[in-house]
Specification:
The chain is α/β, with parallel strands linked by helices and 338 residues long. The protein has a domain of 230 residues: 3-Layer(aba) Sandwich (Rossmann fold), CATH 3.40.50.720. The protein is built from 12 helices and 13 strands. Strands 3-2-1-4-5-7-11 form a 7-stranded parallel β-sheet, sandwiched between helices. It has a two-stranded parallel ribbon with strand order 6-13. A two-stranded parallel sheet has the order 8-10. Helix 1 crosses helix 2 and helix 1 crosses helix 7. The longest helix has 20 residues. The protein is globular and about 55 Å long. 48% of the residues are buried.
Length: 338
């Protein structure tokens, strides 16, 4: 019998790749969307890389109980991916935090009522290292939510903590994947995604200066494979898995890779940190980047490699595949051959 998997946030950058990986592995997939208007574009994007005869959709919203019980019916597993990746600081941090935390608990409670065996939660390394000093961190690390870490990092930390609390004493297993900065080709280049927008801006010459930011990064295709592997690996139950490079990759290194590959509009100029901090006083976009300026953390990915048998896609490959995908789709000008 084909097992059914619910994927929240299926219309997003990571969600589409996870759905495709599941469909290629012969699972039936129910994807949740906030509006049925997103289903055709999502289905078309996934259809380019996976069969979609076992793909269907359910309309739900993280801020409402409506539809969740019906969507979960008959599901063996749940992938809770839905959560926006934003770096621009909102006017009110609770606009991001409340839906993330309450929505996560809402999904977990619905999954428990439906008798789901295991839920895989997409968290983030931002739930592990934000507000911490430079150093080496592993799966047992948590971000400091009392520090100035920004709304996104705070939302991911509090949402994951709420998830672990919600499954205590129950029968449903929880496994968490903590990706770093995600790169790699989107299935739909028109997606509204911070990762896609950043690469689009870089190769389109719309990022004139680079902030002193270095992220531990991961290919989106690896993220999808790790979710599926974590879903069924017995030893994965009750664990957190870091999906990111051990060493951080500076924006300047990414820019050099793109420049050498022929993307001539990419800037390699460094933005003065003092200027960005000053801009953060009145710019919400700059304010969102401030907690990351000058930060360098290394991550212990031993558990991910050993338990989930992960061999990471080289980041140069990931960056160039992403840039090529966006260029091919006309998101930016084609790279110069010179």
């Amino acid at each position: 019998m084909t097992e059914r998997v619910l994927v929240t946030g299926i219309s997003g950058y990571i969600g589409q790749h996870i759905a495709a990986e599941l469909l290629r592995s012969n699972y039936e997939v129910i994807g949740t969307v906030r509006s049925q208007s997103k289903t055709e574009a999502t289905k078309d994007a996934i259809a380019a890389v996976a069969p979609v005869d076992r793909l269907s959709f359910a309309e739900t919203n993280l801020v409402s109980d409506a539809g969740w019980d019906d969507a979960m019916s008959g599901c063996t597993y749940v992938m809770h991916v839905a959560s926006p990746f934003i770096l621009t600081e909102p006017k009110d941090e609770n606009d991001v935090i409340a839906p993330a935390v309450n929505g996560t608990v809402r999904v977990i409670k619905a999954a428990q009522r439906a008798g789901v065996t295991r839920l895989v939660l997409t968290s983030s390394t931002f739930a592990m290292v934000a507000g911490r000093s430079n150093g080496r961190y592993g799966p047992d690390s948590w971000s400091d939510t009392t520090a100035n870490i920004g709304a996104y990092a705070k939302s991911k930390t509090l949402a994951e903590q709420a998830a672990w609390e919600a499954v205590q004493g129950g029968d449903m297993e929880l496994t968490v994947i903590n990706p770093g900065g995600v790169s790699g080709p989107p299935l739909d280049p028109e997606l509204s995604s911070s990762s896609v927008s950043m690469m689009s801006d870089m190769i389109g010459g719309k990022m004139p200066m680079l902030p002193d930011i270095a992220l531990n990064v991961v290919d989106v295709r690896d993220v999808a494979k790790l979710h599926v592997k974590a879903m069924t690996t017995p030893l994965a139950a009750g664990q957190r898995f870091i999906a990111a490079t051990s060493d951080p990759v500076p924006y300047t290194e990414l820019a050099e890779i793109l420049k050498q590959a022929g993307y001539s509009r990419v800037s390699t100029r460094k933005a003065p940190t003092v200027l960005l901090k000053a801009m953060g006083l009145f710019s919400r976009e700059a304010r969102g980047a401030v907690p990351m300026l000058g930060k360098r953390t290394t991550l212990d990915t031993t558990t991910t490699s050993q338990v989930l048998d992960w061999r990471a896609t080289p980041m140069k490959t990931s960056f160039l595949d992403m840039a090529a995908s966006l260029s091919t789709q006309g998101t930016n000008e084609q790279r110069n051959s010179a």
